[in-house]
Please model this.
Amino acid sequence: MKDLKIALLDMNNNHVNQGMRNIREISQQFKEHSNENVSITVFDVRYKDEIPDIQDFDIYISSGGPGNPHKEGYSWEEKYADFLNNLWQHNLTSEHKKFAFLVCHSFQVACIHWSLGNICKRKSYSFGVMPIHKTDEGQKDFLLKNLPEPFFAVDSRGYQFIEPNYETINEMGMKVVALEKVRPHIHLERAVMAIRFSDEIFGTQFHPEANPKGMLANLKIDKNRIAMIENYGVEKYLETVDRMDDPDKINLTQSQILPRFLQHASEQVMKNLVMA
Model:
């Protein structure tokens, strides 16, 4: 029996990050409950210049991370661009599809790479548990359909994707499936929060992997609590803690999106192997 091979792309550039730990945990849980022989390999993309070969793995999850998603002249950037090109090209030409999930920083890098819209710096850093709204296409997408409207997710970003280029998006067969919360008192365009890039590739600007227990513990550490209150105010801090505790918010989002992606991808990969 062929192993199902998962590659985790760490985009944190050697910064300690809960998101990558959560992605590892979700992947490990999937491995433990899978009927297949599953292997998981981690690649440190930005700090160690590591990138997986498209031919070597079946499923890719590429993490969020700090910093500017636009190219700054690092060698990993061209390698990651090649990875995206090879992934897209492989799925156009091969019956043995490769599946990928792109989180936050990876999502933004991909949107810049495919010229899908304006990825620019926010006026202020967005952090907290935010409502995410599904578009009409999002209502039908199997990764989101078990979530309420709106659903809630952890948002943590200094950049945003606005002014989508629908001509390119439609031309490439992509679909915008989620938008950020409505802010009627602020005259700014709503950011794109998730895209169905293809049947095999999905990306979110929010963090579907976020673990409420870990984030709650983090926010209760004195220095983190004080920093958040100083930056966002007591009200925002209390709202975030309250939403973390709610089983219908972060817990639900974490239990649905990435686990469903892994389950679906593995089924498709194994089905293709049987038909080969």
